[in-house]
Design a protein that fits this description.
With about 210 residues, this protein is mainly α. The chain has ten helices and five strands, in the order E-E-E-E-E-H-H-H-H-H-H-H-H-H-H. It binds zinc ion (ZN).
Length: about 210
Amino acid sequence: MPVDRLDDGTWVFAPYGSMLPIEDGARVVCHVCGAALAAISAQHARRHDLTLAGYRERFGLNRKQSLLAPALAETRRVEGKRRWAENDALRTGLAVGQGMARSGVLHELGTTAQPAGSRRRQGRAAASRSGASPALQAHRAAQSETARARWEERARELGFPTLDAYLTERRAHGGTAHRVRTELGCGGTTAVRLLAAHNGSASDPKNST
Ligand SMILES: [Zn+2]
């Protein structure tokens, strides 16, 4: 049954300004309909035409207020901790990545580890040699492949057979990094690098790989 009333007169099933845990914290009560749930999920909120942010706002919950039942929050916390402890490779990779980002090494790798004319693969190898963990290397390689595939697809959408063909065309007709960035949807630094790398590989074909 309703336990509180909003300023607009709407009766609600949990008090304004807080969550209402029941069953020893196993569930929380939805303010709108009174359902007992493990969490107010985005899907559940949507049934009431609310986003999670909208739900919090309407019922006076601050942004940090968890919408999970205490039991579920605890389960998630323990699971997260266990995964963190078990996945040594991931943890090492993250730690290295964070350390490198903080010290600016990632930026260095991104801009200078690929000497003019090197192909991307060589750039990656150079970055790997400078001490990233295997986990981080794998992560980086996967990301790089994914990004490359996306740019290839963009190039085809723009009517070019390949990304290289696209870059050749842009270079030949004064394509700017800004234009490449806009057309491929990549970052500005990447656009500069793609244009430069292609410039190099055009005059120095694949014989160095
Ligand atoms: Zn509900």
